[in-house]
């Protein structure tokens, strides 16, 4: 079900300006009824400025009138708010969460070292300088940085984090260990020598088997009983 663009502010307006029940408001705004109760009692953590859903064309006055007349009536939204599509550029992080960025960066560096600094910057909305400082532990506040899941902190979504991990894993080579090619030439020479010796042994055995000396034939069969 579609919800108003600013559910808490909308709930605050509906509480102050209508006779709708808390359950109706909670259902329309997608909130828990206790959240609506806290807004009505002015015990919410943040004092909200009401947002008129009628002026926002998310709810009609007729719907409000139907809801006020029937407590069991469920309000229907006129239209859903347009989804805000993220454009290219740095991610915006609310001021209240910016102090959590170093913790989220540290968590990614520790748990997903395969993710590049550029990808971390896109996920968290930070700079390569900050990431490098946390990576080499030269950050000014490194003593107070505690690795925390950036999804839990609200800095990114689980889908975006999973996509970054999958992309980093796909882009990395299957075997990250460097290979030592110094003995490559010697190995090829040894294989070629073994092949030559085996072919020479086979030719010698054929020559003995097709020769006229019965003793040589018997010795060849004894040396290599499978060549008959």
Written overview of the protein:
With 228 residues, the protein is mainly α. It has helices at residues 7-17, 22-29, 33-40, 61-69, 95-98, 101-111, 117-124, 128-135, 150-153, 158-171, 184-209, 214-223. Helix 1 crosses helix 3 (33-40), helix 2 packs across helix 3 (33-40) and helix 6 (101-111) packs across helix 8. The longest helix is centred in the last third of the chain and has 26 residues, at 184-209. The termini are far apart. The mean pLDDT is 78.
Topology:
Layout: H1 7-17, H2 22-29, H3 33-40, H4 61-69, H5 95-98, H6 101-111, H7 117-124, H8 128-135, H9 150-153, H10 158-171, H11 184-209, H12 214-223
Helix pairs in contact: 1-2, 1-3, 2-3, 6-8
The span between the termini is 83 Å
Low-confidence stretches: none
Shape: elongated
Task: Find the count of extended strands (DSSP E, 2+ residues).
Answer: 0
Supply database-style keywords.
mainly alpha, 53% helix, 228 residues, 12 helices
What's this entry about, in short?
The chain has 228 residues and is mainly alpha-helical.
